[in-house]
Fold this sequence. Notes:
Structural class: alpha+beta
Order of helices and strands: HHHHHHHHHHHEEEHEE
Protein name: RiboL-PSP-HEPN domain-containing protein
Strand content: 5-15%
Number of domains: 2
Helix content: 55-70%
Amino acid sequence: xxxxxxxxxxxxxxxxxxxxxxxxxxxxxxxxxxxxxxxxxxxxxxxxxxxxxxxxxxxxxxxxxxxxxxxxxxxxxxxxxxxxxxxxxxxxxxxxxxxxxxxxxxxxxxxxxxxxxxxxxxxxxxxxxxxxxxxxxxxxxxxxxxxxxxxxxxxxxxxxxxxxxxxxxxxxxxxxxxxxxxxxxxxxxxxxxxxxxxxxxxxxxxxxxxxxxxxxxxxxxxxxxxxxxxxxxxxxxxxxxxxxxxxxxxxxxxxxxxxxxxxxxxxxxxxxxxxxxxxxxxxxxxxxxxxxxxxxxxxxxxxxx
Length: 305
């Protein structure tokens, strides 16, 4: 089943791109300043929502597999128990949910904690954060819990290989959060047109890299892979290769990373994506769809879609 989290993110980023074309947004008057502040806040929320929704999907994927709680290394056991309680308690402190939602929330947490003697029932909260907004360290922690080696180097390398190079991914996220906070708490703060136009690509870069790393790791957890569990630095960008579904003048082409010729061409992106996913499965390959300008449109790791 395709990721609803990824679809929501891509739809939101496309809406953001279209908004930035408006002369109202680019204006130097108070209206333009107001709209740019709002878009900056909403943009960061898109990334946060994606991380929450995608880790929720990934928890379901992992929990449907072969692993038991006892298979987890101590660091992941702690995250699934102690850290889960800490994050759940903190989130409840600032929650505005109604009573029924809170009861559902606490029941889910309780069921996850009660599963420590048997098959996995991990809560996605173990990969999330305790405060109202995701910090740079929260993003890093999430990736480390999926055994990502050198998270920022890995994020940068994945982004580079899909054609979206980032000079310093950590600084990119730091600056996004800093601008988001200034916009949220300073009513007269001015966001530049130059900065706001970089946001869509940066959100995609950070989301795509995290999603790929988490998805590959999640499949290893689902399969109860002992080599994955025993190595906190298991995932590096060198673990994977890519297949690019590229828009051409009148067709779409499935082109493996590093190749100059297509494996297959077709009249629409869906047909070629299905072919690429079928052939990528079991090969540690990620399928990335791009338009004619090589702008990323979608991506998927077939084993954990």
